[in-house]
Write a structure and sequence with these properties.
By secondary structure, the chain is α/β, with parallel strands linked by helices. It has one domain: 3-Layer(aba) Sandwich (Rossmann fold). The protein has eight helices and eight strands, in the order E-E-E-H-E-H-E-H-E-H-H-E-H-E-H-H. An eight-stranded mixed beta sheet has the order 1-2-4-3-5-6-7-8, with helices on both faces. Helix 2 packs across helix 3, helix 3 packs across helix 5 and helix 7 packs antiparallel against helix 8. It is globular, with a radius of gyration of 17 Å.
Length: 278
């Protein structure tokens, strides 16, 4: 049985001056977790909720248990959607959520930051921000599911199979950037070509990219993956599937093995990262 806790609190960091909300999932709230997944949902920054992902997150907690973790926990951020707010509001909420996770575990080496699509974009922005501040609390690993790496791009190409549309994404991206430059690296991390900054921003045991061969984001994902491989450990897990397939499989597949395929791969990579850390 898992315990669900609603988290609403203030951040202790000066830059995060706003409240944030989220969902904490664990088996024991009194014991320190041995692994925490900090998850940020997708939806083009304009839609979605951590509650919509609840089945996916609970399944992930179960897979982590079967992978050997005794008390895995997941914190899913409930960030403010566009157009109610735009950059940097969501980045501040993302940083506040990370600070909250740190307060629950007190060990950044047991934190995996993760997200799909727009959520993964916020994860990458957060990592770059931590890199600019030379923060020591780097997470263990980043598991990025079909990350939206470049906010505005003419490289993304629509495919017959994927459900995303590059023109619509560019509209959402401009709404998120608001009056700011949409190619600012903290807004569009894929536009960051500063390899020294990326080296400072990489999680302790690297980054994993989990994406489909038939999705719109393939060229940008593979471009960023190649750049990061020059400064740290990078895993590329490309499957013959569409956008955010580890999440989509939970809703589309009928066989349990197929529904959990992505989660099993990601969890195995987390176990390996933990072995490197120790």
């Amino acid at each position: 049985m898992y315990i669900l806790e609603e988290a609403v609190t203030d951040s202790n960091l000066p830059v995060e001056k706003r409240d944030f909300k989220g969902l904490w999932i664990s088996q024991s709230s009194s014991e320190r977790p041995d692994i925490v997944i900090y998850y940020i949902h997708g939806g083009g920054l304009t839609m979605g909720s951590s509650h919509f992902y609840l089945e996916f997150l609970l399944a992930w907690a179960s897979v982590l248990r079967s992978s050997g973790f005794q008390n895995p926990a997941i914190f899913a951020l409930e960030y403010t959607l566009v157009p109610d707010e735009s950059y940097p509001f969501q980045l501040h909420e993302t940083l506040a959520g990370y600070n909250y996770v740190l307060s629950r575990t007190e060990d950044p080496g047991s934190i995996v930051v993760s997200g799909d699509s727009a959520g993964a974009l916020l994860v990458l922005s957060m990592l770059l921000y931590l890199g600019t501040k030379a923060r020591s609390e780097k997470p263990l690993f980043a598991a990025l599911l079909s990350p939206w790496t470049h906010l505005i791009s003419d490289v993304n190409i629509n495919t017959a199979s994927d459900f995303l549309d590059s023109d619509v994404l560019n509209v959402y991206g401009r709404q998120y950037a608001g009056s700011e430059d949409p190619h600012d690296p903290l807004i569009s991390p894929g536009d960051c070509e500063d390899t020294a900054l990326w080296a400072e921003s990489m999680p302790r045991q690297g980054v994993g990219f989990y994406y489909g061969s038939e999705e719109v984001f393939v060229p940008c994902i593979e471009g960023l993956s190649k750049r990061l491989a020059g400064v740290g450990r990078v895993l590329n897990r490309k499957d013959e599937a569409v956008h955010a397939w580890p999440v989509a499989a939970m809703f589309l597949e009928t066989e349990d093995a197929a529904r959990r395929k992505g989660l099993l791969q990601i969890s195995a990579d987390i176990v390996e990262a933990m072995r490197y850390e120790r």
